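Thread: quick sanity check before group meeting

JM: Hey all, I'm pulling together slides for Thursday and realized we never actually wrote out the predicted structure for the chain we discussed last week. Dropping the sequence here so it's in one place. If anyone has concerns about the input, flag it before I start.
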Amino acid sequence: MTDRIVVSRYAQALVGYARETIGMDRMLADLTNLRDIMRDNPEFLSILETVEVTVLEKNECIDAVLNEGFSQEVKQFLKLLLAKGRIDKLPEIGEYIRARYSHEGEADAVLKTSFPLDTELIIKIKDALENKYRKKFKLYVDLDASLLGGVRITMGNKVIDGSVRRRLEDLKEKLTAVRLG
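JM (edit): ok, ran it. Output follows.
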């Protein structure tokens, strides 16, 4: 099963569960707070992903870090991801949910860049997206050094990848095809 399908299925499962229990607003707020915790404390996700730490210890870590202000439903979801060996998909699942479900009439887009962008450039990118797709976007900016340069925009299932990393991968594929041909 591809990563995109896995992310989509887990995201839709959490959304369905949240709609029946805590509601979308609470779930989205918890995911936003969780994203902030992971951004400010990258070791949190590292602990959850490492094989040297037992599942019981990871569950205790989730309970300790997300002690106050987080719903039981989101904590249970994290523990489910741990049990199924999918905790590494957590950032993508959160991004997918925020992009797809956070605002009615306004779609979310995540702009990943390897370096901070000028506010004017961010506004131009947002305007270009809104003109192209004829809808309003709420644009989130995330720094991701692994892109090497350029930008990558995710809007639900759609990805516009103008990163240097992607261009290098495309060039590698072309060069490999030329050598084989």
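AS: nice. The domain at 105-180 is CATH 3.40.30 (Glutaredoxin). The mean pLDDT is 86.
JM: adding both to the slides.
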